[in-house]
Amino acid sequence: QVQLVESGGGLVQAGGSLRLSCAASGRTFSSLAMGWFRQAPGKEREFVAAISRSSWNTIYTDSVKGRFTISRDNAKNTGYLLMNSLQPEDTAVYYCAAKMVRANGNYLPRGLNDYDYWGQGTQVTVSS
């Protein structure tokens, strides 16, 4: 079993930056592909970014390309989402997700149902 705990959310002005962290329990972090999703009020949860178990591959939804960077530190059992140039439309609860990947270290899961584990979410609010 893997537990994920997000942190780093908060209130920021448009144009500002935040770095979200996702701390994972257990000793299997290097076997996990990691992803970030977000859910705005009244909207469905949507994919934001993912990083492969190998760390070699990343993918982003179009609206955050060039502004957000996903990364991981296997030594710290932690994943990150650096968010720059934040806009009010980025306001949402951000969720960290993980999927156990036993083969194909470059696999990038992107669907909600692709992931095995979820964090509790952290609120990001961007004021205009």
Which helices and strands, and how do they pair?
Elements: E1 4-7, E2 10-13, E3 18-24, E4 32-39, E5 46-51, E6 58-60, E7 68-73, E8 78-83, E9 92-100, E10 117-118, E11 122-127
Parallel strand pairs: 2-11
Antiparallel strand pairs: 1-3, 3-8, 4-5, 4-9, 5-6, 7-8, 9-10, 9-11
Give the C-alpha Rg. Answer: 14 Å
What is the number of E strands? 11
Q: For the record, give the distance between the C-alpha atoms at the N and C termini, rounded to a whole number.
A: 40 Å
Number of helices: 0
Give a description of the structure.
- With 128 residues, the protein is mostly beta strands.
- It contains no helices and eleven strands.
- Strand 7 (68-73) and strand 8 (78-83) form a beta hairpin.
- The strands form two sheets. Strands 2, 4, 5, 6, 9, 10 and 11 form a seven-stranded mixed sheet that branches.
- The model has no long low-confidence stretch (mean pLDDT 95).
- It is globular.
- It has strands spanning 4-7, 10-13, 18-24, 32-39, 46-51, 58-60, 68-73, 78-83, 92-100, 117-118, 122-127.
- Helices cover 0% and strands 48% of the residues.
Q: Could you give a short description of this structure?
A:
The protein has strands spanning 4-7, 10-13, 18-24, 32-39, 46-51, 58-60, 68-73, 78-83, 92-100, 117-118, 122-127. With 128 residues, it is an all-beta fold. Strands 2, 4, 5, 6, 9, 10 and 11 form a seven-stranded mixed sheet that branches.
